[in-house]
Amino acid sequence: MLLSRPIDAAVAYRVSFSAIARRRSFLNRVNSMLGETQSSGERGDAPSGLRTALSLELAGKDRFIGRNSQTRPRVYGGQLMAQALLAASNTVEGPQVAHSLHAYFGLRGDVASLIDFEVDRVKDGASYSIRRARAFQNGREIFSLSASFQRPEEGLEHQALEAVAAPAPEDLPTTRAGAPTDTSDPAYLITTALRPTGFEPRWIDPYPGGPPRPGVQRLWVRSQEPLGDDPMLHRAALAYISDYPALEVALLPFGFGWSNGNLSVVSLDHAMWFHRDFDLNDWLLCSTELVSAQGGRAFVRGSFYDRAGALVATFTQEGVVRLTRKAGDAFP
Fold first, then answer.
1. 164 within a domain of the structure (yes/no)
2. Degrees (nearest 5) of the Cα angle 139, 58, 222?
3. Of 181, 185, 199, 275, which has the highest C-beta tally within 10 A?
């Protein structure tokens, strides 16, 4: 069967054809835009992971199917966030776009199974709407997300945080300094071969490991495929990317790297706020910092800035960061 959990026939029967048509129109717009970028010829060596990660299939009233796009032992958390956010946005009428999300990672996702998303309509307002999306595989809930959507409006403007100093992305090498190149090194598999696809990182700070250093990291990111001009797509894509650099910064003050075989690092929850519109076709600067580490957990904060220094998004994440008794448990 297509679904990991079958759709209730009575519920499916009550879905109006006009509602399905509206949702199919949105999904077709999302998928066609991403499909066009794949065949556009620009950045032709880009993998197609982002296109797959942002694609959904309508499966009934407020039900959607996501496919896995990563060659990893488990489903990438950023993919779950991006797909859940798009599923939630597909049930919101009008021009409202996401301004915040809060997500919890439950069970490990199986890359061999489809992901069934169910969306609850918590609130529909003229200015704000709230949605709750849950992801299931094989009848088990593996992930949940709540998101709030706002109709665009004019308002007061202020920004307390200035963008951190950073060289231009064009002046940085495509290969991260200190990154493992030996394909037999487990760290190479974790950080390179199994890195989530679809976007291009340009790291400013070197690979973790060696002497302890402050818990701060910087990198530039952009989509490897043009995303068009739909602001909701760009928000979902940035949510997808934000999970990638989050917890690595927690290793720096302790001198750990991904080669530490007795290190376990797992995301627990993630929150994100979208402050301003941005263009992920161009580079965004990401700055992350370790705020606190205690009790086998680490709490990190990250900020995204555009080239002009405008703060476009902020995220926080807490995760398990612990030394295990068994070697080989580490996986980002």
1. no
2. 95
3. 199
Q: Walk along the chain (332 residues) in steps of 10 and give the mean pLDDT of each run.
A: 31 31 44 39 40 86 88 85 97 95 95 94 97 96 98 94 93 82 71 76 90 95 90 96 95 87 88 97 97 96 97 98 63 40
Q: Is there a contact between 97 and 77 (Cβ–Cβ < 8 Å)?
A: no
How far, in Å, are 31, 51, 72, 79, 252 from residue 86 at the CA level?
11, 13, 22, 11, 33
Catalytic residue IDs: 243, 267, 317
Q: String of b and e for 156-174 (b: at least 16 CB within 10 Å)?
A: eeeeeeebeebeebeebee
Could you tell me the two tokens for 32? 């066609």
Q: How many helices (H) and strands (E) does the chain have?
A: 6, 12
Q: Which two tokens stand for residue 42?
A: 């620009």
Hey, what are 283's tokens?
């580079």
Choose the final residue of a domain: 150, 183, 217: 150
Within this chain, do residues 123 and 220 fall inside the same structural domain, yes or no?
no
Q: Which tokens belong to 124?
A: 């529909």
The whole-angstrom separation of Cα 52 and Cα 47 is: 10
Of 150, 180, 199, the last residue of a domain is 150
